[in-house]
Amino acid sequence: MFNISGSLVDTVNLTNPGYASVSLIRASDSILQGFTRANEEGKFELAVPASGRYLLLTSHPSFATLIDVVDVVDSHTNMGIISLMSRKQLLAEVVITDSRAIIMKGDTVEYNADSFQTRAFDNVDELLKKLPGIEVDRNGKIKAYGKEVKKMLVDGEEFFSDDPAVVSQTLRAASVEKVQVFDKKSDQAAFTGVDDGELMKTINLQLKDNAKKGYFGKVTAGGGLPNYWENQAMMNSFKKKRKISAFGIMSNTSTNGLGWSDRNKYGGSNSSFFNDEDGGGMIIVQSDDSDEDSWNGQYNGQGLPKTWTGGAHYSNKWKGDSLGFNGSYRFAKAVVEGVNNSRTRYILPDTQYVNTDKSSSTKVNNKQSITTISDYQIDTTSSLKITLGGNYNTGKRNDNSVSETVTMIGGLLNRNNNNQEFESEDKTVNIDLLYRKRFKKKGRSISAGLGGSWRDKANNGSLYSDFNLYAIDSAYTINQRKDNSSNALIGKAKVSYTEPLSKVANLELNYTFALNNNDAKNNSFDRIKSGAEDVEVFNPLFSSHYVFNAVQNQAGANMRFDLKKFKFGFGGNIANTDFKQEDKLLDTTYKYSYLNFFPKVNFRFNKSQSTSFSFWYNGQTRQPSIAELQPFRNNTDPMNVAIGNPNLKQQFSHDFRLDYNSYKMLVGRNIYGGATFSVIQDAISQVQNVDESGRRTFQAVNVDGNFNGFLYVDYGRKIYKDLTASAGVNGGFTRAKNFTNGQLNINNNLSIAPNLSIYYYKDTTFNFSYRFNPRFTSNTASIRKDIRTQYWSYFQELDGSVNLPLKITVGTTIDWNIRQRVDPNDRNNNVFRWNAYVSKAFLKDRSLVAKVFAYDILNQNVGYTRHESADYISENSYNTITRYLMFSLTWNFTKTGGDAPQGDGIIIAE
């Protein structure tokens, strides 16, 4: 262990320049090795990783930057008194260096990318792992100073999307000049200058000038045993403001693409001018018998996947950057073959029973999405933004299942054979127009937006179900064709006006008009024999045709106060919403109207640049979905029958949130914590009745007394130059009421989960991370106080890699999941998965890499999940990817300008 110490002195005033920044830089390659601050007396001590020659850089806002050469030989090196010169006394011939590794400007932390060593062809996510205060997990999730990064921009704009995982895995680290981390205000707040309290942790990647001309990319071809393949191609081309990118991936392993977020991630109705808090959630959820598959482009471990995905991106600016265009197209095809075995123990007031289900499925999904964003800066005070988006999705699905229900002593209650086949088509178009105008008086502005979307869905297929109810000696067969369709037209117009009342106070007024028109048909046709022919007969009991329309008028006012370190806002919206629901089959109409007040309060106290405390309160509603309202029986699963409730009320929730965040950049310390709490009035819950055959009928109802709370805290600190550790705990409690067989059931759920993480990143030589996350879960139900479901689970995750001589890299990952048994029949509770790889780089620039990757070396991977509540415990085992060996060859190509100069120090700037 080595260290350096010394004392800083002002040569003119003979005082101690306290809190100066002291940085240690390796002389051989100008890589930052450590940094600290002098105390108030000007004394400092700095750890040194190894002996050798270093540069000691000392900087202070009032003094000239000083660089000393120091040779570290002994365990302790005392620099003695180091004299600094006041900038006021600085002579013309004195040279000041301006190389910077980290700069703090107000609320923005800026990293000089070249001061942090990465390999020649690393993506941005590898660069982020090297930056103090930034964490990147193996799934691409990024945290900055304890908060999840929600947006990632390139030169201030979207690149494919603002999804951090997409951007960080697409761009190359060598093309980045600066990484800027900040709390992004909403677009509306940034335009008006009036802080609305909404902040989102954001990273902006500022590209090097030489990277904005030329191209780079990579191609990977991989094949494995037994019968696995993984191929990728990616290319980026830049020329000043123009960016062109494309990628393609085909794989039947866990590498399935860069993620496929919903339409709000890729434009469409993604204008922050229209936000959910305005209307308290006037959302009408459609429902039919279709498979609402939420595949997002990532493999979740269930089934055996085959995927083909790709996309293209183009953006440019013209006329002095006053006219901009940003467009992206993406497509994906996924084929997943799944086998699932489930065992569920249901807990009733007077009995228990067990349901087992063995099923297989084949799913084919095709998704296409296109988004364009056009910006026109009309003049220095006004702008127009047009966002267009569309999606076209198709799918096929075939499900086969055999299930049976038995008593706890083995008595057979029912058996069901079920087969479903469906084909679906889903089309969506979105458009947003947004006009903004700033007036001469600072803070006075007007914004007007018009948005709309159209959606058309069709779902056709068949249902065959053969089931026996042994308890009542009855048997049924369902043989039906399903013909379902729905369409929706949604529109919204909003005007917002801001007026400064003083230097610290601003008033915001807004008005919104919204409409939501839905038409949903669910038709069932019984297939029966008529002589020698099969005929179809319309079945009105399991059919429906509903038209559901909603019109909302809403007005609101909000006051904002900005007192530098303290920001405070309060206000609310009043909304009148009229609903009309028509049952076309029964020729009945339901009309109802709601008048709601949506209050909101928020304040934020910024104690310093790096320490803040925030509080939010919002009141909002949730409207019932069509599936909950419509009084028709859905027989897709004859053992679980849903019944609509046309008298269902909307629910109203009071949501509170506290948030504390503090970080110290120079010592790599961060503390963050917070709490949320929600109380729900007229919560939409459920009444369920289970008969003697185990057949379950359920209906949505309103209840009072539901609430939930969540608490979390985490402390992280750099222990040594390259070693960081964090520890924390989170816990939650939920109380939810429902009714089971006529009895009120109060469900209490408690979870407590401590966590420990260790990260070690040694330049590009050695990386190591370890995470330990135990969790305790407890569920109780008032209908069965004698039964308590509680257990511990333990999850451990280890990642590591090391670069060896001869351009060889070795890496490994281990996942170990241990679950305490809650039932003697539980199986596959524990999973131990070990992966490893060896790679070797070729050519002078290491642009060609050969890799051998072994997945699940011990062949221990099993698909297993557990779900539980107070009245049931369910475990599922399913087929998943197991042991394979993959051989791949990757070629990285590039043609850009020269390398940017490397930074060699730290300066803190206000």
Question: Describe it for me?
Answer:
- Among the domains are: 2-97, Sandwich (Immunoglobulin-like), CATH 2.60.40.10; 105-236, Ferric Hydroxamate Uptake Protein, Chain A, domain 1; 241-604 and 619-634, no CATH class.
- The chain is built from 5 helices and 47 strands.
- With 910 residues, the protein is mostly beta strands.
By secondary-structure content and strand pairing, the structural class works out as: mainly beta
Q: Spans of 5+ residues with little confidence (pLDDT < 50)?
A: 90-99, 260-272, 283-295, 898-910
What can be said about the biggest beta sheet? 26 strands, antiparallel, barrel
Strand content: over 45%
Mean pLDDT: 83
The N- and C-terminal alpha carbons lie at a distance of: 34 Å
Number of helices: 5
Alpha-carbon Rg, integer: 31 Å
Shape: globular
**Using DSSP, what is the number of strands?**
47
Helix content: under 10%
